[in-house]
Amino acid sequence: MDSVNIFKGYGKVNDLEDQSLPRNSNTNATTLKPLITTVSIIAILLLTLTIGLMLGALMHQTDDHTPGFPSLSSDSAESIRAVCSVTRYPESCVSGISSLKFTCKKPADPEAIFKLSLRVSVTALSKFKTSISNSNEAALRDCQTQIEDALGRLNDSLAAMDVGRGEKALTEAKISDLQTWISAAMTDQETCLDGLEEMESTSLPMVKTNMQKAKEYTSNSLAILANMHTLLDKYHMSLH
User: Fold this and answer.
1) Which of 178, 179, 208, 210 is deepest in the core (most CB within 10 A)?
2) How many CA atoms lie within 13 Å of 40's alpha carbon, on the beta-carbon side?
3) Residue 158 and residue 111: Cα distance in Å, rounded?
4) Do residues 115 and 161 lie in contact, with contact meaning Cβ atoms separated by under 8 Å?
5) How confident is the model over 184-233, as pLDDT tens digits?
6) How many CA atoms lie less than 13 Å away from 105 in the CB half-sphere?
7) Is the whole model's pTM more than 0.85, yes or no?
8) Which residues cross the membrane (predicted)?
9) How far apart are CA 73 and CA 80, in angstroms?
10) Average pLDDT over residues 21-35
């Protein structure tokens, strides 16, 4: 009897040990669930915050920058490149204006950069005129006359940009006049080349090469002026 009772008691002990295992597992699971939930919530919050920051940055960029259009920076080099992007010869525009020594504050708006582009045009065309001034060829003498006319129109355009305090450098009427003068200067340069071609001048290849930069600079000036309103609107500016 005693032995039987002993075995029966042993069996009860085993049963208790077996039952204790599930209870321990439940306890661990109960302890882990809040931890897992907390970690999951933190991860979701971090992901939400990250996505929010990315969307905010994207919206800010969309508001401040028109797709496909460069931004205007306080840095003069970036400003020049932004304005020159509307021209037919943007690299020529940038290199020509950047080569100038700025005697005043560095340009950071379309009007100032337009004025510098005119200076580049005048300098290049003056240099070209000097290169053909000593020729006795009849066709080149006619060309010199055309170039002098072109220089006169460009110098008039540049002078029109010099205004006193309180005066606008550009007005609607002035923009119209400048477009007429610069267009005429371009026509004068083309007329020079046409005359050399008609007279079958042997100087034509040399003249074309030497005049190329001046033509590009003049074209750039006209393009900047033609897009002046667009440039100012893009950068939330007005004529001043």
Assistant:
1) 178
2) 6
3) 12
4) yes
5) 999 999 999 999 999 999 999 999 999 999 999 999 999 999 999 999 99
6) 5
7) no
8) 35-58
9) 9
10) 50
User: Residue ranges per domain, the chain?
Assistant: 1-64, 76-234
For 76-234, CATH number? 1.20.140.40
Distance CA 103, CA 100 (A): 9
Alpha-carbon span 87 to 97, nearest angstrom: 13
DSSP 8: H
The stretch 160-179 carries a mean pLDDT of 90
Structure tokens at 135: 């020729």
Q: Residue 167 has what DSSP assignment?
A: S
Type of residue at 116: L
**In the structure encoding, which two tokens stand for residue 42, read together?**
């933190």
Calpha distance 53→106 (Å, rounded)? 35
Tokens of 206: 């040399």
- DSSP letters spanning 111-164: HHHHHHHHHHHHHHHHHHHHHHTT---HHHHHHHHHHHHHHHHHHHHHHHT---
Neighbours of 186 (CB within 10 A): 19
Q: Give the Cα separation of 9 and 15 in Å (integer).
A: 10
Counting every residue written for the chain, the total comes to: 240
* Residues 91, 240: Cα–Cα separation, whole Å: 27
Amino acid at 166: G
Residues 6+ positions from 239 with CB-CB distance below 8 Å: 111, 168, 169, 170, 171, 172, 228, 232
